[in-house]
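Before relying on records like the one below, remember that each one covers exactly one chain. Contacts with other chains, cofactors or solvent are not represented anywhere in the record.
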Amino acid sequence: MTEEAHLHNSGLAERAHRVRRNALIMAETQGQGYIAQALGVADVLSVAYFHAMKVRPEQPDWEERDRFLLSVGHYGIAHYAVLAEAGYFPEEELTTYAADDSRLPMSGMTSYTPGAEMSGGSIGLGLPMAVGMGLGLKRKGSKSFIYTLMGDGELAEGPTWEAAISAANFGLDNIIALVDFNQVQADGPSMKVMNTEPVSAKFEAFGFFVQRVDGNDLPKLVAAFDRAREHPGPQPRIIIFDTRMGSGVDFLEGREKSHFIRLNPEDWARAHAALDARRAQ
């Protein structure tokens, strides 16, 4: 690794730390939340926003921006964490998370949050919306990419696969789909609820350029995003990320029930301390 690459990855590691810290701040205000998912996907979001994507936080509606669609709506806490770090709104606003009249509702809403491109809630809608945006941007001659973050549970949703057929059929090489494959959903382990493996082979069969990487390894993430953007084929791209729920906070990583977490005040302090200790290593 070159010195320049090392410094870049170090900067991304600091960004990811701050994204995790932001997520903890928000969850602590409520005493609960989808915190394990936010910790797990923090590295992916940091590389997306601070390495791959073309955005202007001070001008959220800039026409030439890359679009980011949060398909997995309950990851709002993770998205707000990276949006605050990127400068879309002040970090002080994080403590209003999920409160009345907040711009940061529990699931992302385009009408409230700067930088939010779709409203979340029902899953399985991000890739269909990406297809519509992709077609529109193609007709406008835009060079922008549309990123859409899905959870592994969304791979059991019919609209996801209808959209996958459409994206390949229309040659939408401006779509980069992202899947947080953390193996957990509300009803239990994802592959026991609905086994969608072999995921890579299925998306390849649907005409996608597919990569599957460790979602908590920054150098591998950087390389995967670069390959997705630079791939020459006229086809949609997808990156499947194997992530660890609670990554960065050791006692949450091993938690059996981690879809929605409630902690007491002592454990929130313990989580902050664990995150800071990891940063110091």
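The first strand starts at residue 32 and ends at 33.
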